[in-house]
Specification:
By secondary structure, this protein is mainly beta. About 5% of the residues lie in helices and about 45% in strands.
């Protein structure tokens, strides 16, 4: 304890740490100005769906690959999904459920990224139509439909809704097509005897052939096996999702020539994945993932290297699911510079307490992970008891674009835990002027650690500040304390190559 107090004294003399009374931590905080984004080109589109409000809270958005310039593209009621980009980089095709809770109302629509053409409904059949994608030339759309009445089959149609035809009907359920620009074949998911498999289809000869077996040792009550394939730009491999259990799946890639399947090492075991996509340069992959074991529920958007390593969050808010994703042809190559990682200086942080009052220790104790805690007693807020601490940490970088990843680690506890209590970790989203709730844990009374890496530049402001909020949220009127042992940030910064330094 004496050592911690000595360290705190140094920090106070530097004038870096403040303890202020405010509601910032619990009501959204006060962030800085977002990084400029007006001149950034769109690099990706995605479907973002507010959990619990899907019919009214789902929309299609565009952004750059670091999460800036997030703009809504379409504003219609309905549950949208499966958005795909035309080869021209402007037209979009997607599915929309037009009646809440009715899968048969899912139809195919076409729109434009820049709003230059009105939205067009491609299918009108009152049967499930889903999972559309474009042909390599953009003159056809292939999609899955239940219009034949015996499971889904792959159909093709022109973007104006004409010339519809079934591509292959072998009696098995078919979905999730992706059309290769390399050799013209379609890879899709097909129901086998006890699991889904990936198959290839020649749309000219109407011939199909198996590509994967769906895996072994799978135990799932929902349909297990291989789904959601996506061709690599060179046509040699397909990225896909292998469903293992009701709550877990793997990110995999299959070599199309040999059928060899590689399990990628993205994140950890026990996660669920969806919507995998390659970048156009084949230098990274994108996917949605859910990590409930560490409190990160919901399908959040991640990016990783092609082997699945260095998986980083792009969008962190656990209140949203990502129901579709695609990249634009104009997406820039990934930053190839080396990464230099160092701890951020919390001695220069601005720390503000929200609801709650200091109950133990000094706020500077959060500088070290040593079991010596700073505590806040909860205070009444409506029907709950709340305490929160808000950190605004300046990152020591000259150019925010050099910040490739911020690794956040929080060790904290909620005392006297009971049903409905939460330990919540949020980070400041300056681009959308809100706090994004990243993780919510059920507290057990002991110190618990949450760690996650974030690459989105929406979480930096123009003064290079990164904001973290730690909250104890207790149900009812039972008071308690928020104990914080440590809040740490490590900054992965791009450094110049030897040739760039010369």
């Amino acid at each position: 304890m004496a050592g911690a107090r000595a360290r705190a004294g140094v920090a106070r003399r530097r004038g870096g740490l403040l303890l202020l009374g405010s509601l910032a931590a619990c009501s959204g905080g006060s962030g800085g100005l977002p990084l400029p984004s007006d001149s950034l080109p769109a690099e990706m589109v995605f479907v973002r769906s507010r959990i619990g409000q899907r019919f009214s809270g789902t929309d299609i958005r565009r952004a750059d690959a670091r999460g800036l310039d997030t703009r809504r593209v379409l504003d219609r009621s309905g549950i949208e999904s499966d958005v795909r980009v035309h080869p021209d980089g402007n037209r979009l095709v997607f599915a929309r459920q037009t009646r809440n809770g009715d899968p048969a109302s899912s139809e195919i629509f076409v729109a434009t990224l820049d709003g230059s053409a009105p939205e067009l409904r491609v299918t009108v059949d009152n049967e499930l139509d889903e999972a559309p994608c474009w042909s390599p030339q953009g003159d056809f759309i292939v999609f899955a439909s239940e219009r034949l009445g015996s499971g889904r089959r792959l159909f093709r149609v022109r973007p104006d809704g004409t010339d519809a035809a079934v591509l292959a009907d072998d009696g098995a359920d078919q979905t999730d097509p992706d059309w290769s620009a390399s050799d013209g074949r379609i890879v899709f998911s097909r129901r086998g005897a006890d699991r889904r498999e990936l198959w290839l289809l020649d749309p000219v000869l109407r011939r199909t052939a198996a590509l994967t077996t769906g895996g072994a040792g799978i135990a799932a009550t929902r349909e297990p096996g291989d789904v959601e394939p996506a061709w690599s730009p060179d046509g040699r491999a397909a990225l896909f999702r292998r469903v293992l259990t009701d709550t877990a799946s793997q990110l995999c890639a299959v070599d199309v020539a040999t059928g060899a399947v590689t399990e990628l090492t993205a994140l950890d075991a026990g996660i669920d994945l969806a919507n995998p996509r390659w970048s156009p340069h084949q230098d990274r992959v994108f996917f949605a993932a859910d990590r409930p074991a560490i409190g990160i529920d919901g399908l959040r958007l991640w990016t990783a290297r092609p082997d699945g390593s260095d998986a980083w969050l792009i969008y962190a808010d656990r209140r949203d699911d990502y129901l579709g994703f695609d990249v634009l042809p104009a997406m820039r190559p990934a930053d190839a510079r080396a990464i230099e990682s160092e701890a951020a200086d919390l001695g220069a942080a601005r720390i503000e307490n929200g609801l709650g009052r200091p109950s133990r220790g000094a706020v500077d104790f959060v500088l070290e992970r040593d079991g010596v805690v700073f505590g806040l007693a909860t205070a009444a807020s409506g029907s709950r008891e709340i305490a929160g601490l808000d950190f605004r940490v300046p990152l020591q970088v000259a150019d925010p674009n050099d910040v490739l990843v911020v690794e956040v680690s929080v060790t904290a506890a909620v005392t006297e835990p009971g049903p409905g209590d939460l330990l919540r970790i949020a980070i400041r989203n300056n681009a959308e002027n809100r706090n994004d709730t990243v993780a919510e844990l059920t507290p057990d009374g002991s110190l618990q650690t949450v760690a996650f890496p974030v690459t989105g530049l929406a979480y930096l402001d123009r003064d290079r500040n990164f904001g973290v909020t730690v909250v104890a949220d207790k149900a009812g009127t039972r008071p308690g304390e928020l104990w914080i042992d440590h809040v740490g940030l490590r900054v992965g910064r791009a450094v110049a190559t030897p040739s760039e330094r010369r």
